[in-house]
Each structure stands twice: as structure tokens, then as C-alpha cells.
Amino acid sequence: MRDPAKITLPQLKQALLDVNTPLAAVYLYRLSDLSDEDLSEIKSFWHEIPLWRKQALMEDIEEMSENDPLLSYDNLSLFALSDPDARVRELAIRSLSYYEEPHFINLLLEILEKDQSPDVRAAAAFALGKFVFLGEIEAISEARLREVEDRLIQTFTSNDALLVRRSALEALGYSSRPEVEGFVREAYYSDNRDLIASSLVAMGRSVNSEWTPLVEAMLDHEDAIIRYEAARAAGELEAVSCRHRLLELLDDADLDVRLAAIWSLSQIGGEGVMDKLLELYETTEDDEVFDLLEDALDNLAFTQGEGFFGLLDVEQMMRDNEDGEFDDYLEEWDDFDDFEDED
Fold first, then answer.
1. Cβ contacts of residue 68 below 8 Å, gap of 6+?
2. How far is residue 32's CA from residue 292's CA, in Å, rounded to a whole number?
3. What is the pTM of this model?
4. Residue after which a domain boundary falls, among 168, 193, 218
5. Last residue within a domain, chosen from 193, 226, 245
6. What radius of gyration do the chain's Cα atoms show?
7. Which whole-number Å values give the CA distances from 303 to 66, 232, 235, 339, 341, in the listed order?
8. Residue 342 lies in a domain
9. 222-236: string of b/e by CB count within 10 Å (b at 16+)?
10. 137-190: per-residue pLDDT in tens?
11. How far is the C-alpha of 180 from the C-alpha of 211, rounded, in Å?
């Protein structure tokens, strides 16, 4: 790969404006950690970049920011918050998922109040959830936390678009404010599928085991989206009582529900989980399921025994299991699980 650091600004400009040539990944790396001088130059020709390319660029930046925290597109994304196109602004907010500077709160609050696009306002409400969490762990001041919570409560109880209200409720899931419980219950017992789904997101984020019975009840819902969110919430709550139903959901007709069940089982652990996930790992032909199972098995090893399997990778575990050697470990571990559950 060409060295991104050696790409000049004129070369970067030419690549961004060349609508007949796909933008090579090396230019995306060049856009990471932009200096103020580089950003100023990009601002000068930003309006010349075709809209479809700006949208595609911000989609790529969002994905790369999520997959590689060492990359930083903060300067460019903060600038893109003022783009005339709503999709670009929405993607800019989403690409700042790791950005925790306090001044970002002010920007998000302003966007939530004034932006004309419901999609952008919803993205802002969702992003404010990070600061609710930071406030709960005392990483930002109580006054700032209260300001964010107040605005999110105001948004949820307003006549704003449902998408925006849902995002506000999900962000409030991290909050320990007493009134939030009432909002979550209101959404849960509504007749609206989307509000019910958002209430389950909030329940999972609360890490409050008192929500477990309500989450468990939704694992049998006829709507796959609600089963999916219930499965995710069960994992976040580490709800042992949901284990049996989650094991059944590994055969759900909906792929997303199956994936959520896999990961949540890795968070809960316990009797039968390792056996079942190893069986799936050995038999699945779906690449997406296979990749998630690798991560889930690693997570389960940590969940159940703080590294009980040591540095054994999943492939080695499977090779051992073919000879029956690993079965003995599973039996011993199941015995320990039974003791732990009784305790």
C-alpha cells in the first residue's frame, strides 16, 4: 500500500474530485489525523466534491472509525456537522462515536434542538447517550449530566418525530434518574412496535436486573425486531433465567435474532452454552455467524472463568474436541456451572 503520509493535498483533492475513479483506501487513511492546515485546505474545496461522494466518504469514515479506534477523523467529522446535506451531517455524528470532548455536548444539544432533519436529530439524541453514561460514572460533571438528561427527557415527552423520541429514550437508558423508569414502562406497554424495541434497548443499558421478567417475556414475541432487542437486553442484564430461551433462539428463523442470542449467551454463560456454541461453530456455513461465534467463544471463556481456556484459540479447541479430549473439560466446567447456579 502506498504510504498515506506521502500523499499531498493536491493529490488528495484530485482523488476526491475524480468522479470516474473509486476512492482508494489509502486516501481514507490520509484523511485521518488531519492537521488544522490540511483541514483548512479541504474546507476550501469541500463544496466541489459531489454529494454522492461526500456521503460515501462519510459512510467509509464511520465504518473505519468503528473498526479501528487508532484512526481519528474528529476534525473532518466536526466540520461535516455543518454540511448542507442531512445525510452527511447524520454520518458525521455517527462517526464521532468515540469523541468525548465536553464541547461536543453543546454541539449535540444545538443539533437536537435546531436541525431540520429528524434523522440528524435522532443521531444527536443517540450520541448524547454516551454522555449520560459518562455522567453516571462521574466522568463529566453532575451539572452537565443533568443538562443532557433534561433535554433528552424534554425530547421524549415532546411531539417530535417518533424516531427522535425513540433515540432519546434509548439514550436515557443509561440514566439513574427516577422518572426514566416511568418512560421506559410507558414505551414497553405501548402498542407501538418501535417504542417497545426502544424500551428494551433502554432496559439493557440500565443494567438493572429488575427489568429481567419484562425482557424475558419479549423473547417470545412474534415480531423479530422485538425478539432481537429482547435477546440483546438479556445479555446486557446477564439474565440467567433467559438462558434456556436464548438457546432455543439459536434456531430462530431470523438471522439477526440468532446473532443476538449467540452474543448474549456468551455474556450469560452457564450450563449447555459452551457445548452449543462449539457445536454451531463446527457446523455453521454462514461466514457472519462463524465470525461472531469466534468472538463469542472468546468472550464466553472470559465470562465463565476469567481466561479458563488460557491462550487456546477456537481452532485448537475444535481440534482437541474431535479427539474427545475437550469433552472432559466441558463436563468438568458444566459441573462447576451447576454449583455456581445453585450458589
1. none
2. 28
3. 0.85
4. 193
5. 193
6. 23
7. 24, 16, 12, 16, 14
8. yes
9. eeebbbbbbbbbbbb
10. 999 999 999 999 999 999 999 999 999 999 999 999 999 999 999 999 999 999
11. 13
Contact between 279 and 309 under an 8 Å Cβ cutoff? The reply is no
Nearest to 126 by CA among 103, 95, 157: 95
Domain containing 109 equals: 100-193
61 with 162, same domain: the answer is: no
Residues 65 and 173 occupy one common structural domain = no
Q: For the segment 100-149, what is each residue's pLDDT rounded down to a tens digit?
A: 999 999 999 999 999 999 999 999 999 999 999 999 999 999 999 999 99
Contact 42, 76 (CB under 8 A): yes
Residue 326 has pLDDT above 80, yes or no: no
Please, what is the end-to-end C-alpha distance for the chain in angstroms?
55
Percent of all residues in the chain with a pLDDT value above 90, rounded to a whole number: 81
List helix spans (H) across the chain. Answer: 9-17, 25-30, 36-45, 51-67, 74-80, 86-94, 103-114, 118-136, 142-156, 162-172, 178-188, 193-206, 212-217, 224-236, 243-249, 255-268, 273-283, 287-305, 314-322, 325-342
**Which amino acid, residue 38?**
D
Which of the 8 DSSP states describes residue 35? -
Here the cell at position 108 is: 449535540
Whether 308 is covered by a domain: the verdict is yes
